[in-house]
Amino acid sequence: MQKDYWIIAYYIFTPIEDPLKEVQRQQKFLENKDIKCRIYIAHNGINAQISGCKTDAQIYLEWMKKDARFKEISFKIDFYDEHVFPKACVKFRKQLVALDEEVDLELTGTHVSPKEWKEMLENRDESVLLIDVRNQYEWELGHFVGAELPCLKNFRDFSPYAKKLKNHYDPNQTKVMMYCTGGIRCELYSALLKKEGFSEIYQLDGGVINYGKQESTAHWRGKLFVFDDRLSVCIDEKVDEVISHCSHCKTSSDTYYNCANMDCNELFLCCLTCAEKFKGCCSDTCMSAGRVRLYQAVTRPKPFRRYSSKENGLN
């Protein structure tokens, strides 16, 4: 498999005086380049995921580094055989991570390198709380051994979770280790925990993506959920372990589907046999719903995207 495409993830918190102007600047630069992406720009920074042919991807990285505002960006790069986004999408966002509340980034936790993180895991005792701060559908696919796995459906759920956490753990006696996919959520969530009184917080620098590149799968089980067409990846391509299960029959599966019921569209794990049996639906109820997309058998389905009813094969 020829891996001619770079998959790039990065974020940076930095003041952007005119984010709409930056949106236009990015869009202009991407014109006529073999780059597809999801780039969100706010007053306080950028959160981006990009796929591009090697040449154009390198040109983009060099262009970003020339801007004084972005010279401190740490780019996380993977290699793949095709694009993992359908188009180039650059948008203004009021929030880089949807929390719906102001966060003081001066309260961010202490960054620890993957090597330090591994050592901390190996020396962890009962006074250390290890938290996976991703959504449930993410950690079901894979997580660090011994992590607390909160049942969160979206980013906004973390704030009430943080408030309740001090009812179970003494903020003055508990050291917190937290991790996410690429690091950006920990920047905000660590600040939320400090706001609730937890003073000693450590966050994995660069997230699980960075950890896999440097420490492989030490203390990690399963795969990593990613927000692109791949959905599920190994954090080290040499180690392919599946710990997740089909939501229907509970057999081993690391394949996600969007429910074919358009009024549900739930993301769920499913084996190929059950996907065919339930016609791409997450339940019997959804199978008999009024707006169900035509099921097409594929080994690795991509995330559902809204097209016209005719293109969807709508029943």
TrEMBL record:
Its EC number is 1.14.-.-. The gene is trhO. It is an enzyme of class 1 (oxidoreductase). It holds the Pfam family UPF0176_N. Keywords: Oxidoreductase, tRNA processing. InterPro entries: Rhodanese-like_dom, Rhodanese-like_dom_sf, Rhodanese_C, TrhO, TRHO_N. Belongs to the TrhO family. Residues 124-216 form the Rhodanese domain. It catalyses: uridine(34) in tRNA + AH2 + O2 = 5-hydroxyuridine(34) in tRNA + A + H2O. This is tRNA uridine(34) hydroxylase. Catalyzes oxygen-dependent 5-hydroxyuridine (ho5U) modification at position 34 in tRNAs. PANTHER family: RHODANESE-LIKE DOMAIN-CONTAINING PROTEIN 7-RELATED, THIOSULFATE SULFURTRANSFERASE/RHODANESE-LIKE DOMAIN-CONTAINING PROTEIN 2. The keyword rRNA-binding does not apply. CDD domains: RHOD_YceA.
